[in-house]
Structures are given as C-alpha cells and as structure tokens.
Write a structure and sequence with these properties.
Layout lengths: L3 E5 L3 H13 L3 E5 L2 H10 L4 E5 L7 H10 L6 E5 L5 H5 L7 E4 L4 H26 L3 E4 L2 E4 L4 E4 L2 E3 L3 H12 L4 E2 L1 H9 L7 H15 L9 E4 L3 E4 L6
Helix pairs in contact: 2-3, 6-7, 6-8, 7-8
The structure holds calcium ion.
C-alpha cells in the first residue's frame, strides 16, 4: 500500500517542491493551502504523515496539530517552522509534533526525517503485530504466556533464561514433532550458531529441572532415543 502524506503549507513553491520529492520516493501527497482545507482533506481520506506549516493564513499550525491529534491513532506530524523561538511550543507535550524542521530546510534532510518517522511507525506496528499473535500455550499444568515471556507450572512461575524460553516455546509450538539436536540448534539458536549438540542437551537438562516434576521421568520434553526430543502432545487439556 502506498503511503499518503498531507502537506499543509500556504507557500505554494515549498508545498509543490516537497510533493515532488515525496513522489520521487514513492509517497503520494496532497497539498492544503490553509488549515481549514487541511482539516477537510484530513477528514476525507487516510493519511500516514502530515507535514504542517506553523504559520498558516487562517489559523496557526499548533491548533491544527492539536485537532489532528484529537483524531486519535498514531499519526506522525512533522512541523515546519520559520522561527526557532516557536520550537518549545511545537515540541511540547501540549501540541505533540513528532519532529520539526526550521525553514529554510534542505530536501535531503526533510526526506531523512520522513523516513525516520516511518521507520518508527513500522517498528511500532511490528510490535503490535507481535502482540496480536500473542498466545497462551497450555499443556497439562504448563502455561506459556508469550506476551509476558512468562512460564508457569501448576500456577507457579518458573524463571527461565532467554534461550531456555525460546527452546521451550519452540517445542510447545510443535507438539508431538520429533527434532534432532542439530535441528534444534538451527531452529532455536539460528543458522549462525556456534553451539554444539551438547549445548542442546545441557539446555534441555536445565529446562527439565525447572519445569518437570521429575526431570528423570519428564512429562513435557520427551527423549526420543536415537533421534532427539519431542514435546508431549498427550497432556493437552
Ligand atoms: Ca506559512
């Protein structure tokens, strides 16, 4: 999906110049010559970024900024200011622009700021996506909460290292499937791992000592002799 930028700027030369360069980097852009028109356009279609001039003929950019914020959602706003004395207000929590440039600004600088804002948006939505696929995996008395990175056995929290957690989660997501030590190294430690097969054994031993009632007779992470390990699929409630 192409991203769409709203430029609220009353100086036509600047507005058009900015639009041309945004188009060049694959962004669509609309121009509003004053605050009123800006709000109208904003209400009529979806924008992913607003470039907002502080000094507009009909109203000042700050009140527009406030109104855009009232719309909710996460919308990056890049403010253009002529006077650096206004910066405190622009960046203040009161208004909440995400970034600003003082005129005259260079186009490469503008584009760099815009890209940085979009990277921030992407990082945020990645996080939200991760959180939305958050799951709680339950197997017998074992509960894995992926959002909170929390594991409980019979309601009691178990402290795991990051790698132990990754290993357990990998198993729990593939109940009943048998994995060799090498496969586990590749899947959990990654292809650039410098681990050895005994790394897997020692992690599994530690994991078992933390989650199994009797580590020598495990309920969850089972040994498949001559092959590797599997996560039990017979305890599901
Ligand atoms: Ca202006």
């Amino acid at each position: 999906m192409r991203r769409r930028v709203l430029i609220i700027e009353d100086e036509p030369d600047i507005a058009r110049l900015v639009r041309t360069h945004l188009n060049d980097i694959g962004l669509d852009a609309d121009i509003a010559e004053d605050g009123m028109m800006g709000l109208q356009l904003f209400g009529a279609s979806e924008y992913h970024l607003v470039i907002l001039d502080l000094m507009l003929p009909d109203t000042d950019g700050l009140s527009i900024c406030r109104k855009l914020r009232e719309a909710g959602g996460y919308l990056p706003i890049l403010m253009l200011t002529a006077k650096s004395t206004e910066l405190d207000r622009v960046l203040g929590l009161e208004v909440g622009a995400d970034d600003y440039l003082t005129k005259p600004f260079s186009i490469p600088e503008l584009l760099a700021r815009i890209k940085a804002l979009f990277r921030r948006v992407d990082a945020l939505s990645d996080k939200q996506r991760e959180q939305s696929v958050d799951e709680v995996i339950r197997q017998g008395d074992l509960l894995i909460n992926t959002a909170q990175h929390k594991v409980t056995v019979q309601g009691k929290e178990v402290e795991l290292t990051a790698k132990e957690f990754d290993l357990l989660l990998f198993f729990a997501r593939h109940p009943g499937r048998v994995f060799s030590r090498v496969q586990l190294l590749d899947q959990v430690w990654g292809y650039n791992h410098d681990g050895y097969e005994h790394t897997v054994n020692s992690h599994i031993n530690r994991l078992r000592s933390k989650i199994e009632a009797d580590p020598s007779k495990p309920d969850y992470i089972l040994t498949v002799w001559g092959v590797g390990y599997k996560f039990s699929n017979e305890l599901r409630e």
